[in-house]
Amino acid sequence: MTENIYAPHLVTIEKIRNEAEGVKTFTLTFKDPVERESFNYRPGQFGEVTVFGAGEAPISITSSPVNKGYFELSVAGVGKVTQALHLKREGDIIGFRGPYGNGFPFDEVKSNDILFVAGGIGLAPLRSLINQMFSERNKFGKISILYGARYPALLCFRDDISRWAELKNSEVLLTVDTAPDNGWQNNIGVVGSLLPKINMNIENTTAFVCGPPIMIHFIILDLLKLGFKKDRIITTMERRMECGLGKCGHCNIGEKYVCLDGPVFSYQQLEELGENI
Ligand SMILES: Cc1cc2nc3c(=O)[nH]c(=O)nc-3n(C[C@H](O)[C@H](O)[C@H](O)COP(=O)(O)OP(=O)(O)OC[C@H]3O[C@@H](n4cnc5c(N)ncnc54)[C@H](O)[C@@H]3O)c2cc1C
Ligand code: FES
Predict the structure, then answer these.
(1) Are 8 and 58 in contact (CB under 8 A)?
(2) DSSP-assigned letter for residue 62
């Protein structure tokens, strides 16, 4: 019998963490020990998550592939599937198929300085890459991480952020659009306002940008103004997806499918595909 490529694999929710307002992080393990051991992925790849009775949604893998035996997803509860997932408890079973998509360049940017610019839950796919890069710290130059959210309660991955800030030759700057709770001692303003605060050797830097479309739009304009080459600006595209496998035709940009050829693209590729971002 041929395998049904749309059939979800069963995974157990081992742990649920409240990551930020409206965002939960799920630690998952495959029920089948063979699948658990063999599961491998690249940062930037995603999977289709099934909540039985509610449907499927594409979600990026936020854990680093260095961590074996389990993986993590961070999910904002915005609609039918994601809110049904937020109602699940530790020990419950959900479905997962993947990994899908191309993932971020890794070996290709070794020896580069790296700039990460993220907004809100956009840090989820980048967290996977950042943690993988820090596990091979001596292969990369300076790592700068600029992260913003609308207000402090929306900032994700605070434990990782504190750890990253302590690591050698790295820099982490945080900002929020507004800080109503007075306890905020950090920057205020959009994440692009952090760019002038860091020293960069632009010739040798690759930028990874992830967040809401409007943020990506303005950050790319800022980076181009600073002199970044178009092929050194890497971002991820979100599209409504169904199959995740390049079969249904729901997610195309020009002749490419975001689920198959993306979701990671350089700005140069997006421009060549006629994508107006
Ligand atoms: C490759 C990829 C990776 C993603 N990674 C993550 C992740 O790591 N964490 C996370 O929380 N979300 C992620 N998303 C977004 C997530 O897939 C959607 O929020 C989810 O599909 C919404 O499903 P739902 O049934 O809960 O919402 P629905 O009931 O379908 O919709 C709720 C609202 O969200 C809007 N919406 C739904 N899907 C999208 C979308 N793809 N883009 C923009 N708006 C949408 C709808 O228009 C509606 O306003 C990713 C999406 C893609 C394509
Ligand atoms: S989601 Fe079906 S082709 Fe991309």
Answers:
(1) no
(2) -
Q: Which ligand neighbours the alpha carbon of 253 most closely?
A: 2
Cβ proximity of 140 and 114 under 8 Å:
yes
Nearest-CA residue for ligand 1 atom 7 is 59
pLDDT in tens, 136-160: 999 999 999 999 999 999 999 999 9
Where are the alpha helices (H) located in 61-197, listed in sequence order?
Answer: 80-86, 123-135, 158-166
Residues 147, 48, single domain; the answer is no
Q: Which atom of ligand 1 is nearest to the CA of 54?
A: 25
53 lies in some domain:
yes
Query: Which domain-ending residue is among 71, 100, 129?
Result: 100
pTM above 0.85, yes or no: yes
Task: Identify the bridge partners of residue 257 per DSSP, sorted by sequence position.
Answer: 252
- Atom in ligand 2 nearest the alpha carbon of residue 257: 4
Q: Which residue bears the tokens 């800030």?
A: 165
- Residue 213, Cα to own-chain centre: how many angstroms? 14
For residue 241 the two structure tokens come to 């997806």
